[in-house]
Structure prediction request, 204 residues.
Amino acid sequence: MNRSLSGIGLIGAAITTLTGIAVEAFVKPASTISDQQWSYPWSAGAFVPVSVAYAVLHLLVFLGMVALFRALPPRAGRIGAAIAAAGTLVLLVAELMSLPIADRRLTDTGPQVVGAGFGLGVALTAIGLLVAGVVVLRSWTGWQRYAAIVAGGWAVVMIGLSMTSALPLGVAIYGVTLCALFAAVRTYDARPVTEARTRARIEG
Prediction:
């Protein structure tokens, strides 16, 4: 079950990466929308389905966070993973709250409130991943032990990027760190099973 959840999270993270790259490389250069409009670089009409798609990606990433939670038996680690999962849900809600304000200016009340929601979601995700990352760093071995703390560190950077034109590129890099995180959960979960089967063959 946990490998399925981490696999779903990995898919969501990979699509997030590709989306960030596509927006940075193709959508932004071709956009005629003011960067003071909430929907930038998308038109108000295109922004609605895009935001719904982003909300779905947050849901997939949330399931990956659930896999991280299930992979961490220490209490502190699970608390961190739960905070990160909660932050991802806040981002999902913020995406949906964006739908009616696509054509508003950034200085309007609606965008200010929703922008604060995005900031809260990113901050919670960063805090949660850093807490979980410290536990993983101490309790796991191999390259997997670094994945959570690297993702948390980049999430901290994302707090500063969230209201800048570099956001799509930042999202793409964040997606890469999440890919590594969910791949770490997936492979680390599989390792005890593989080791048990190897021992069984040797003993047999």
